[in-house]
Amino acid sequence: MSLRTFWRKTHLIIGLVSGLVVFISSITGALYVFKDEVESLTHTFRHVESDESDLLLPSEVFAVARQALPDTQIHGAIYNGKSQVIEVIYYQESPLYYGAAYVHPSSGEVVKQVNFLRTFFGLVLAGHTSLWLPPTIGMPIIAVSVIMYLILLISGIILWWPKGKKRNGVFTFTKTNKFLIKIKEWHVVFGFYATFFVLIMLLTGAVWLFKGFERGVYRSFGGQKELGFSYPKSDISQAGTLPSHVNVVDSVFQLVSEEFGKEANIEIHDITDAESSILVEVNRKPGTYWQMDYLYYDQYTLAELTPEHIYGRYKNADMADTAIRLNYDIHSGGVGGLLGKLLAFLVCILSASFPVTGFLYWWKRTRESKKRKKEFMAELE
What confidence tens digit (pLDDT) does each residue in 204-254 have? Predict the structure, then answer.
């Protein structure tokens, strides 16, 4: 078997095995790209008339949320200023629930409740990350398919890299009306132009799927911190330092609001246990995540704590930290704004087309080959 034959068979077999997974991951990725923009236009309930009333404090918001969904674990509350509702996020693993209650920022009225797992984009994300299977089954399948897709990209370049001065049908389309040739050229020409961008999508996805790969990327940039997220511990020996009437979560919220402004995108989390710190996330540029500030405050002294991992204040992030922080925004195209998302959308659409055009080309060619063989045998009789 020649090397070229080996790569051709490898490309065919892996393409047939992984094609459906590649198609699902790609098409759901395309659908998810503009999630924020679509929801901004369709979720009109998020926008309210601002008034002179003060924003509800976190303790008041959490009390409303607990009453709205009793016995459901609250993850945090997201503030977006006076003109938007406060989004209270619920998340628990058993029984699984992921959703939100949208609370009016001054009246405390629950404007709407949403179970993210049952929304359109929730279903799209479930397909993208685990093929609508239990994560313990779906995610390993996705991980294996990422490796297969990398092999497909490599074998495709090897098989169709032009020899000599040949360019038509490889970098440009030829003028033909033959359906089989059109399919092949779609697969090959767009495949060449999309390979670099698909590779970026695959590698940024691999950062989440393979922790060893994530560590390797981080260390290659000289990173020395921890990659796992954790809360710095509060100094429990300082319990009783603050007056008993002081609500520490509200106090932390006021500190952060004074620093970043009351219109800032602020997500605050409640105290989870006696040692946990109070986490506040401030998104400097909503729609992206890499420039976020992760702030931690001692629940007994209100002193700001510095984490040992990469998720701290953005100003303290070095090049290696930034490389990992950028991962999601590169994967989603958000790092490039609307143009970046449009590019990500187009790459996903092309990626979804490759299993289809590859299968059609193989199927049509196989049928034509069988037809020619049958005609040849008929002539011999």
Answer: 999 999 999 999 999 999 999 999 999 999 999 999 889 888 899 999 999
Beta strands 278-283 and 110-115 are unpaired
Residue 179: Cβ within 10 Å count: 11
Q: Distance between CA 175 and CA 172 in Å, rounded? A: 10
pLDDT digit string (tens) for 271-286?
989 999 999 999 988 8
Domain ranges of the chain: 35-124, 236-313
Contacts of 344 (CB under 8 A, 6+ apart): 29, 33, 201, 331, 332, 333
What does pLDDT average to over the chain? Answer: 91
101 to 56, 73, 246, 370, 380: CA distances (angstroms): 14, 12, 26, 60, 76
As given in the structure block, the two tokens for residue 188 are 């090959």
DSSP 8-state class, residue 34: T
The tokens for 180 are 């089989």
Q: Which two tokens stand for residue 221?
A: 């940039």
Instruction: Give φ, ψ of 96 to 5 degrees.
Output: -60, 125
